[in-house]
Design brief:
Elements lengths: L2 H27 L9 E2 L18 E10 L2 E10 L2 E9 L6 E2 L17 E10 L2 E9 L5 E8 L6 E2 L16 E10 L2 E9 L6 E7 L5 E3 L17 E9 L2 E8 L5 E7 L6 E2 L18 E10 L2 E9 L4 E9 L3
Antiparallel strand pairs: 1-20, 2-3, 3-4, 4-5, 6-7, 7-8, 8-9, 10-11, 11-12, 12-13, 14-15, 15-16, 16-17, 18-19, 19-20
Amino acid sequence: MSRLGQGARRVLICGLVVGFVAVLLLASFGAGADPGTWKKYRRNPVFDIGAAGAWDQGAINSVNVIKDGTIFRMYYAGCTGVVCGIGLATSKDGIDWIRYPDNPVVPPGIYPEWSYIIQNPSVMKDGDTYRMWFSANDLVSQIRIGYATSADGLTWAVHPRPVLVGDLGAWDAASVSTPAVIREGAGFTMWYSGHSGDFIYRMGRAVSLDGIGWAKDSSNPVSSPNFGWEDSRVHPMQILAVDGAYEMYYYAGFSYVVIGHAISADGLTWTRSPDAPILSPGPAGSWDAASLGVCTVVQVNHRRMMWYSGSDGAVRRIGLAISAGYR
């Protein structure tokens, strides 16, 4: 066989293997690939803005929920005007929430030169330590990723410097944002969004042994806006490791934000599954008619619960959607 023929055969075999892996992934995720399985809770929103004069009276614009024993912990960004910090609420059922009385647990402006505005928490309970990564804005336009730890999930020690920043001249030079972090073995893996100054947000991946020092993947960006409904940005929200592979929930779009879902065998090459939004804004006049936003997903037994940000065009609140049929 000629060298050209051998090369064509290798390409064909490689393509068949990739296709077979994609089929296996779709089969293993089952109902997770079905855009019709997510149902919005009929009494949405489940979490509203704070009372007049409260620190979170303006908006609840990002959310991350973890299951901690029998309790759900919601870490959320509450805002007055453009200034946001991180608060905590707890719930027994994921529907009725009680605010922590000493909110915010991570207030804005701890290090004003880089963390004047704090949003997009990604929280895990790692042994006896709670860990949080978050987006932090300065007073100009730069967004970086910060880090904090806590022994009880209430009192947080914020690392004095950002742990992830954009690289000069790179795809993420202008901003890095929306961290989604999981533990893998002895270290951590982060998916994040960034842009070069063109405000086209793509996704990158980085790894760390301690949650502070991060090495970005040489293949970054690992995902970019690819469909019309994704508009000019894709932001990772939640990563689930399932049967040796990965699922990603992400939000896409700018003015009309929707929620998407993707799968990957290695965390680097992602396939939209499906290639359409799995959750979209509600009908005219509803609380989430204008736009969706940041989301977080927790699996409880055979169903998944998604809390998501929604807006009627004036105020952002948090709603709940539920999908059943997961292993």
